[in-house]
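Tutorial, part two.
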Amino acid sequence: MYDRKEQYENALKLIKDRKLIRASEIISLSPYTERTFYEWFPPGSQELQCIKKELENNRTDIKLTLREKFENGSSAEKIVLYKLCANEDERMIINNTERNTGNEESLKDIAEALKGNYTTK
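Running the prediction step on this input gives:
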């Protein structure tokens, strides 16, 4: 059987070493199932909050790197990678969809958001 504390430490190590950005990646690289993962680390648990924070740190690092590269021109690959790392609000902007605002974002607004110059209206 697996030791919960050891698997928690392994999850954090995987996140750091492999620069993971999703819990599903941890599960895929671990010897246990998704069900076991969420039994050990249920929503609201301190361990899951730490795991989520580390995953978010990796997503933020990637987004910051992409923002720097975005100034040298845009490409479909960068947008796709940004979408993978984006939070819900950022995905809405990139996908040019509304979030109860009643107005659509322009492509210029999307580019500004990716450069880090976006301000909500």
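Residues 46-70 form the longest helix (25 residues). In part three we will examine how such features are distributed along the chain.
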